[in-house]
Amino acid sequence: MIAGFTLIHDVTLADRRILEGGNFFDYIWVGAKHMLTGYDHLLFLLGVVFFLTSIKDIVRFITAFTIGHSITLIGATSIQFGVNEFIIDAIIGLSVFYKGFENLDLFKKWLGIAAPNLLYMVFLFGLIHGLGLSARLQGMTQVSELSFLKTIGFNLGVELGQILALIPMVWLINFWRKRSNFGALFKAVNTYLLVAGIVLLVIQLKHFFEH
Amino acid sequence: MKRLSYFLFSFFSLALLSSHDLYLKLDSYFLEPNTTSALQLFNGTFDRSENVIDRDRMLDVSIAYAGQRIQAAQQDWFEKDSITYLTITTEGEGTYVAGVSTKPRVLSMSAEDFNDYLEHDGVLDVLESRQENDQLNDAATEEYSKHVKSIFQVGKTRSSDYGVQFGYPIEFVALNNPYDLHPGEEFRTQLLFQDAPLANQLVYLGYQPPALTHTHDGSTHTHEQDQDHEHSDLIPYRTDENGELNVALDKPGVWYLRTIHLVDSNEEGLTHQSNWATLTFAVADYHQHEDSSLVYLYILGSLLFIGILYFVFSTKKA
Questions:
Q1: pLDDT at B143
Q2: Residue A10 phi/psi, 5° resolution?
Q3: Per residue in B87-99, pLDDT tens?
Q4: Residue B171 lies in a domain
Q5: Chain A residues near residue B294 by CB distance under 8 angstroms
Q6: What angle do CA B107, B112, B116 make, to 5 degrees?
Q7: How many domains does chain B have?
């Protein structure tokens, strides 16, 4: 299970082949695929949408996350800003833990304080997730081959992948919300986010110190 | 600096097509323990072998693993088309190094042929020296020998054998294990000539993308490349005062280093002596060390974990 976490961003050789000399649409495809197979991004999004009941709120929070990761994904890639993949993935793991912690109201229960403004935090974590996406994009292809348009294509793919992932997530949560045992599912999933976030953090830090 | 590298590289990408380097290669540099595979000796370019190496030319054929050095047996060699193969059977997990050293041969060349060879094979220091000393019209008789190594990984456990020194007249000795590296990290090596560090020596770094080597039906093979694609990543470097070289390996795939150390000779009947060295190895993809079946185990484990938690919380509530 632990080793499985290291595969959350599996960049396949097939993806590299697609991107070598790939066009705008190839970048959209790989961006979407990357988002749909990026467990850590999806776990964070799952945590974000768990408490949201209206479409208006979902759009508001997902927009904040999207703006955040688009800024850093496009910005960092454009200026070839490199971050250590392990460190940024460790922080992304921490964001998953944070969302579970916040959803379970542990700020109040354990720390006796109110949770920080969720919209700001989602935007902040969006910035961090974008740095992770940028690091992956820069690692997947030669920076000299990366044009602004291709970066936009990859970002667009990420958004499409995000929408595709959110549709079944929101549907399933709303389906379960009407059932009497939603509370148990809510606790189970958010406790899992706490554990998964910590394991992600530890694994990525282990990789960082090893390499 | 990068522009200069690209310029030089473009120049050599065309020029080196006709070179006669020797490379020790594998279809896959990631092998499993107790399996049989074939080391390939390419005599020509990295991508195309033009002729086989006679066995009586081989002074040494060694494989280093687990602190031991094993000499390959004559019967393990075979030739097919223009490639010489050595059948090997891996033992335990670890980093292995294979090496081949050939006997010297002598070749006489006209001044024009010699100048062309220096230019095409990137022996630019000697060419420059000939220009400066007004020797471009001098014919040459060169004694040359080739000494090649390959580092490959068996299983997952890495070992310190990567840094083995075979004692060849010239050889690359790895200072860190390439199988510990991920794309973007630096490979360090030292070039030794007559067991001493060789400073300020021109070394070329080449790359073959992993797309050209892949697996079908359980067997790994390499696709033929078109000529235009050869040496597409050849980059010139120079060793430092300790004979050391740090090269950034920015992509997964097969990487190789090549150098030709050519000096004037005072031996009777010779004008020059050269020793050629290459080193091949691979850099794994970021996740190549991991077992993909673990993804499914992770998903199932996660669902099971959530299921157990759900059961616990449901029971508590009831």
A1: 96
A2: -60, 110
A3: 888 999 899 999 9
A4: yes
A5: 1, 3-4, 7
A6: 80
A7: 1
Chain B touched by A185 (CB under 8 Å): yes
Asked if A60 reaches chain B (Cβ–Cβ under 8 Å), the answer is no
Q: How many residues does chain B have?
A: 318
Chain A positions touching B180 (Cβ under 8 A) are 211
Q: Which of B73, B60, B76, B67 is nearest to B96 (CA)?
A: B67
pLDDT at A156 over 70: yes
Per the CB < 8 A criterion, the answer to whether B1 and B126 are in contact is no
Residues 6 or more apart from B300 whose CB is under 8 A from it? none
- Residue B51 within any structural domain of the chain: yes
Would B294 be classed as within a structural domain?
Answer: no
Half-sphere exposure of B144 toward its Cβ, with a 13 Å CA cutoff?
17
Nearest CA to B29 among B241, B308, B220, B217? Answer: B220
**Radius of gyration of chain B from its Cα atoms, rounded to whole angstroms:** 23
Domain of B121 in residue numbering reads as: 2-286
How many Å lie between the alpha carbon of A10 and the closest alpha carbon of chain B?
7
Q: Do residues A148 and A78 lie in contact, with contact meaning Cβ atoms separated by under 8 Å?
A: yes
The two tokens of residue A163 are 């929408």
User: pLDDT tens-digit profile of B250-264?
Assistant: 888 899 999 999 999
Pairing of strands B36-44, B21-25: antiparallel
Average pLDDT, chain B: 83
**Contacts with A187 (C-beta within 8 Å, 6 or more apart), sequence order:** A104, B309, B313
ipTM attached to this prediction = 0.83
Q: How far is CA B196 from CA A191, B168, B264, in A?
A: 60, 11, 19
Residue with tokens 């971050």: A83
**CA–CA separation, B230 vs B212, rounded Å?**
12
Residue in A closest to B179 by C-alpha: A211
Helix (H, G, I), strand (E, B) or coil at B16: helix
Confidence of residue B32 (pLDDT cuts 50, 70, 90): confident
Residues in chain A: 211
Q: Give the pLDDT mean for B24-44.
A: 89
What are the tens digits of pLDDT across the range B111-133?
999 999 999 888 999 999 999 99
Q: Is B4 helix (H, G, I), strand (E, B) or coil?
A: helix
**DSSP structural state of residue B271:** S
Residues B271, B264: Cα–Cα separation, whole Å: 6
For residue B312, is it within any domain? Answer: no
Strand, coil or helix: B177: coil
Q: Which pairs with CB-CB distance under 8 Å and at least 24 residues apart come from A101-107?
A: A101/A194, A102/A47, A103/A47, A103/A50, A103/A51, A103/A186, A103/A190, A103/A193, A104/A187, A104/A190, A104/A191, A104/A194
Chain A residues near residue B185 by CB distance under 8 angstroms: 211
CA nearest A151: which of A74, A38, A68? A74
